[in-house]
Protein 1
Amino acid sequence: MTSFEPRPDADIPHCLAPLPLGEHEPPAFDIPAGAVDTHAHVVAGDAGIYPMVPERTYTPPPATEQMYLDMLRSQGMSRGVLVQISVYGTDNRYMLEVLRRHPDQLRGIGVVGPDVTDRELQNMHAAGVRGLRLNVLFGGGIGFDAMETLAHRTKDMGWHMQFLMDARQLPELLPRMRKLPVPGVVDHMGHMPVAEGLQSAGFQALRHMLVDHGWWAKLSGAYRISTRFDAYEDVTPWARALIEAAPDRVVWGSDWPHVHISPMVDTGRLRNQLAAWAPEPELRRRILVSNPQRLYDFPAV
């Protein structure tokens, strides 16, 4: 597990703000009713009420509840999944408050330590949380040490484990991950450079978990694994290979507000990549509607 040392606030880099909604590329395809953006974050505007952890890797700008809902609407998304952002550590309060105000529209992925109480987990489930995130890339997250404990604590709740990791780590972790009693969901298509190639050990390990162990992948964060800003055409074969491997276990996410990157990306352009990754409307509907509906326990559309 990677360790992250606290730094003075002045030494922690500040993220760029997301582009204004009016600057987003318009939809390149008909977005189906019930579409879900499965990966975004909210950041409160009041650091006094919601303090960020000192071991964080970056400081994001506000990405408030209203800003998030406006983004979803502008993207043509009916529903959304909020992922607890690393800068708050295990303080899920703001995300949970937003979830509780929108029980039919939103679901969440939380971050907790292995000492979390059963009551806390039950309260999170009631708020709409359906999984836990492990994060070894950015400071403030919970790493692999807690993996088995948390998986067994939540298996009877129907939750899954979401991994923010570099898929090049997967080959050495496969013996442990194959034994987990809950499904795994891998962020950002494995968060490894697509330049490594489809035959690389990391991608093949990811594909193995999708095909043989019922895992899921998020078609998100193309700008985090591409070298071709801002069309990201080098990601298309990678995304198509994941879709082909498990068409019923891939979902799409914007990764808004796109923290810890420069230059800032166009959220609309990221959504429009689906036209190239999944050219058939019915396949896009599975990725945007039926797959996330099943994974996150949304009511049927």
Protein 2
Amino acid sequence: MTVRTRVAPSPTGDPHVGTAYIALFNLAFARQHGGQFILRIEDTDQTRSTAESEQAILDSLRWLGLEWDEGPDVGGPHGPYRQSERKDSYHDYAMRLVEEGHAFLCYRTADELDQLRDARRESGQHTALKQSDLALPEAEVEARRAAGAPYVVRMKVPEEGVCVIDDMLRGTIELDWGQVDCQILLKSDGMPTYHLANVVDDHLMQITHVIRGEEWINSAPKHKLLYQYFGWDMPQLCHMPLLRNPDKSKLSKRKNPTSILYYQRMGYLPEALLNYLGRMGWSMPDESEKFSRQQMFDNFDIQRVSLGGPIFDQEKLSWLNGLWLREDLSAEQFALAYQQWALNPEYLMQIVPLIQQRVEKFSDVAPLAGFFLSGMLNLQAADFDYKGLDEEQVRKVLQFSSWLLDTETQWNKDQLFNQLKQLANGMELKIRDFLYPLFIAIAGTNQTVSVMDSMAILGPDMTRARLRHALNIVGGPSKKEGKRWEKEFQTIRSQLVTE
């Protein structure tokens, strides 16, 4: 048997360090066994998936040195490697399950589903819906079918009993079928859900080992059942511990930058970031902290993975990156690497047109444009003092802008200005006053180039990180304020959407 592993990211945002973490361990396991590693794009969410996000995933993983044997850009014998290009086959598999009695057409409306869940909740039951909950009288089913009502395809699941899952790290896991709902397999628009597409693709691509995050443990019974329904052999499962913030919560962008692009923009070496991800829950036999990708592959044993939640600590990452900079780069290599990071023509030519008209000599450039080549700025709460805004307004501008830009997908200066101008109007602030805290957060001063140009050049990852950094300095909302602010923001946001 040839070992075949895969990573299957969704192209719905910035490439996540968690994706790189799982990809690294899948690649290491495949290389340890002389196997193959596959990259598959799971773009079943057509409303959020973008070509830009997919390209960012490919570029980021390749920047880290995570090469795949098969994928959407390199091809392979089991393509296509985008789920959106395999849509028709999923429909056929879903209908096969319906014909064989393992799935059913569900005509329930969203309101009816909410009522069913509320009823179960009020009676003290799990909210997982079963076929007995979802069943409609045959006459009603026929009426809805005749009227062309939308439907989904749901799988049948046992209403009671225990599902036993064998995990490479955790041994035997028992999960209660009572907590597993009749999962939607095919949505009303004909696109599959992750669960159907994942199982079908893993089978057709001959995946032998599924190494994924532990958040998927609760989905394992559904996947095991689908393999049984189809009569296929199930890959071996291995659920990796989740990356954690220093406070032990699940790694999230609200507390820790999670975008690979952020760490690239901050000036971390790819070798150091990959080294750090390799240390997340795993260790070398000699316990050495600094090791190359090849050294990890040569010594890899998945049984050395610890189930304790690995802490993603930026200070420790910076320390490790410093070792790589000092120990693995000569002075000449350091200078070249810095030039490629900060002074490459592509990046410089975004900045030069903005500052050229503002300088009289080259020594003016660093004070004016230094924030483009920096990480988190050295700011104080007093830097945000401004006659046009009181303290709470400054904090709200930063928080509301952060919430707004967290979901912005069209990252260009015109779109940013349009969205932030509408937010300023909704907050009943003059745009000049509204932008002052953003200038300080992004550039450290308002005596510089347009903050919209700055955010566009710095990119979403660095912009969002600097806004969160500024919030930490001036003080984000308390729990009480947070509820009130979020309600106010959502009211403004609904107006933005409808305008």
Protein 3
Amino acid sequence: PAPAPAPAPAPAPVQEERAADAPPESPCPTTARACVDLSGNRTWLQQDGKLLYGPTVMSHGKPGQETPKGTFTVTRKVKDEISYEFDNAPMPYAVYFTNNGHAFHEGSTNVQSAGCVRLSHDAAKFFFENLQVGDVVYIY
């Protein structure tokens, strides 16, 4: 007699769709425009399910001043921002995603921040030019 047919493979678990060329382990949904991987110290932009920019190196909040995790929206953008809370520290290309002062901005990626996502000059400029008020930011 002919051998029995091989069993059909189990269906893949259903998960929220993500950008096709985003890091494979990313839980970032396609609805997010900006994705932040805190443990991997990397961030990227995506559009219509495709990787637009990155992943690029970034730094984030230090213990006690952590960058918040979750889903946020871009609330405002200020090109030549300074931090009144931290001795007028420069925050060029600030893209705010909370009402508590958390933003993407240019800064040293070698030092942890007070909760912001610090980017290189080129990355900060690209994020500033390509993120709009209302865009979704997903941080995990």
Protein 4
Amino acid sequence: MNENLQNFLIGLWENAPLMAAICAILVTQMLKVPVEYLLHREWNVHKVVDAGGMPSSHAASVAALTTTLAFVVGPSSPVFATSVVFTAIVMYDAGGIRRHAGEHAVLLNRLAMEIARSGIYLEPSATSEGERLKEILGHEPREVLVGAAIGVLIGIAFGKWW
């Protein structure tokens, strides 16, 4: 292996904030399967790659990143301050704007079904006929909070022991 590539990979591995964020994504995405089962009594392994749902991997990843940065660079660092703002934006987006986009998709899908049932002809769109918009895009506030809590715990672990 090329020495530069090897040093690059070692640098990534030793980057505690990055590893914490990746770990938080993996943990929360895997947790979505048993949570889905507990809530709906249905095993759905596709939840591992789905956006939305409980817990929020968006919130977990940025919370883990920011928490670990507090340990690595300190709370007075401009890097930590940047990460706090980034975390707030991502969590607001995950629980607000993206959730509302999902709610709009539900309404648009319902409207499209009603139009199709009524027999009204519309010009074909660029999408294939019968395609539905993805309805689960964002998170409920509790999903964001649970994801953030998991991220903070993972961030503390990585900040102290990585």
